[in-house]
Amino acid sequence: MSTVETSEPRVSTRSVYITFIFLGVAMATFASRIPQIRDHLGLSPSELGLVLLAIAAGSITSLPLAGHLVHRFGSRAMVGTMAVMLGVSLSAAAIGYHFGVVPVVVALYLYGFSTGAWDVAMNVQAAVVERKIGRSIMSRFHAGYSIGTVAGALVGAAVVKAGIGVTWHVVLACLLVTGAVVVSVRGFVPDETEPEPGGGTFSALAAWREPRTLLIGVFVLAFALTEGAGIDWINIALIDDYGTTAATGTLAFALFLAAMTVGRWYGPNLLDRYGRVPVLRALAVIGLGGLLIFVFGPSTPVAFAGALLWGLGASLGFPVGMSAAADEPSRAPARVGVVASIGYCAFLGGPPLIGFLGDHYTVSRGLLAVAMLLVLSIVLTPALREPDRAAGAARSDLGG
């Protein structure tokens, strides 16, 4: 029995890391080929934004259902099933772009559906493992996602440089991702599904009525837009506005992702020492500064420096928001589903908004829309305070 108790957290932790890493690989693999797909289809920035909107539409469709589905079927079944759907849909997009925009839009909708449900399920499992370990390691799981994106982006840059076609690249990557994840989810631990104190279960509708959950959702929305804008538009902005090559733009994208990885890996130490609120406020300021440097920088090296700070600042907002939503185990699936639904609105509105602004100004100037939400996130950080710290603050206010 003792062997099982000591080995189970290690196995489940490794399994969760693998699911985060390979979701990142899949995302970066597709993102690294966006410029080539855009050029082949002859899309303007606003048209590209509308095509990418299909991903967000798919995610928004699945997210309201994800909490209920995870509660019913478990995170293990959900992640495994969605990994298969992701592999099929991205492969379809990589083949379909040869035939026009419509096959790409349909495939990206299904891709978005799979990533939304996958995201909620793996975050619920990650929160279970985090509680079993007793440390704030959620951001390290998300660092695994960032490691996957960096690996996918670097491979993408090499593949673009080598002139390898989009279809071969994406289909082979999808086979790797699906196979690895379907095997890894066998190590997941059972979800914590204990009933509410009065009996029954906590519904998603009830979570939508909680002010704290909604504030966390808006906070995650701000950081999701900050992260998503970098993922979707950094390489396009370097190519179009700074006049770099496609390979150079992809390297800036990889640098952004590398900075996010560093922030997420070292974040737990800062969070355990200083708490969520001061760390997240500091990172929001860093991200805002990096974004402004990227937009207004006079040269490509300065833009690279801005991308680095932008990625570092964006690193912890999404994972810490998921962790805050899952503070109470019995209510975690519903609350994570609500927060993810709000956060993913950034992926719904972000691409067309920045694409529209890119048509009328430049893509770089369009990214200034992100800055306003980063300022808002600084105001919202108290909603993410840890339960024990929040209780301590309440006692202090009462003179306890």
Automatic annotation (TrEMBL):
Membrane topology recorded in Swiss-Prot or TrEMBL: Multi-pass membrane protein
Annotated Gene Ontology cellular component terms: plasma membrane
TM segment ranges: 16-36, 48-70, 141-160, 166-185, 214-234, 246-267, 279-296, 302-322, 334-354, 366-384
Keywords linked to the UniProt accession: Membrane, Transmembrane, Transmembrane helix
Molecular function per GO: transmembrane transporter activity
Domain of life: Bacteria
One Pfam match: MFS_1
Chief site of localization: membrane
SUPFAM superfamilies (alphabetical): MFS general substrate transporter (SSF103473)
Residue ranges occupied by any Major facilitator superfamily (MFS) profile domain in the UniProt entry: 12-389
Localization: Cell membrane
Database matches in PANTHER family: BYPASS OF STOP CODON PROTEIN 6, INNER MEMBRANE PROTEIN YBJJ
Protein name, UniProt field: MFS transporter
